[in-house]
């Protein structure tokens, strides 16, 4: 399987710290898969103007192709002003409507307020569902107080990340097996 870990913010460090840790957990336990880590902080995406995603160039093409090629995506996003960041919304706009069809997607959300879990529930999940993603219902929600000067300080975050990684890989494998069985049933 192709697994993409995507840190979907172009500012701050917390989402990158948590997604990098999830990527390290994947490398340690699931290195047999094709693993990719992308941090949008390191990329320069141009604004969507309605073109087909393959008509873009540079970082924009690299990121959209990585999303389209992935079987599984672990998506990390911060919550800013009670909403997903503009760079993530732009990424969704760059992709076709059914871009996440047959892909398993899980989420890691960083936020300053406990109440921002509603953004994942009422904004992000509906967007992922609209784009036809097979969404892992549980996600890791990390608050600002879970971080210290040296990164993640709450040990429970490591446990929840490990669980998320394992559940995501298991759901992704299972879903891919179902898709393969469905295709094999056609006999051609």
From TrEMBL:
<keyword id="KW-0560">Oxidoreductase</keyword>
<protein>
    <submittedName>
        <fullName>FMN reductase</fullName>
    </submittedName>
</protein>
<keyword id="KW-0285">Flavoprotein</keyword>
<dbReference type="Pfam" id="PF03358">
    <property type="entry name" value="FMN_red"/>
</dbReference>
<dbReference type="InterPro" id="IPR051814">
    <property type="entry name" value="NAD(P)H-dep_FMN_reductase"/>
</dbReference>
<keyword id="KW-0288">FMN</keyword>
<dbReference type="InterPro" id="IPR005025">
    <property type="entry name" value="FMN_Rdtase-like_dom"/>
</dbReference>
<dbReference type="GO" id="GO:0016491">
    <property type="term" value="F:oxidoreductase activity"/>
</dbReference>
<feature type="domain" description="NADPH-dependent FMN reductase-like">
    <location>
        <begin position="1"/>
        <end position="142"/>
    </location>
</feature>
<dbReference type="InterPro" id="IPR029039">
    <property type="entry name" value="Flavoprotein-like_sf"/>
</dbReference>
């Amino acid at each position: 399987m192709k697994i993409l870990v995507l840190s979907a913010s172009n500012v701050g460090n917390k989402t990158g710290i948590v997604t990098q840790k999830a990527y390290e957990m994947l490398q340690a336990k699931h290195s047999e898969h094709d693993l990719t880590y992308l941090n949008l902080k390191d990329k320069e995406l141009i604004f969507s103007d309605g073109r087909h995603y393959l008509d873009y160039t540079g970082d924009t093409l690299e990121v959209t192709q990585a999303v389209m090629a992935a079987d599984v995506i672990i998506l990390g996003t911060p919550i800013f002003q009670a909403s997903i960041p503009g760079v993530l919304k732009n990424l969704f706009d760059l992709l076709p409507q059914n871009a996440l069809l047959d892909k398993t997607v899980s989420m890691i959300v960083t936020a300053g307020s406990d109440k921002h879990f509603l953004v994942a529930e009422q904004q992000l999940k509906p967007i992922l569902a609209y784009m036809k993603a097979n969404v892992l219902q549980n996600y890791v929600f990390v608050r600002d107080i879970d971080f210290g000067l040296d990164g993640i300080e709450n040990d429970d975050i490591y446990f929840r990340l490990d669980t998320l990684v394992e559940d995501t890989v298991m759901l992704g494998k299972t879903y891919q097996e179902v898709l393969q069985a469905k295709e094999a049933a056609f006999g051609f």
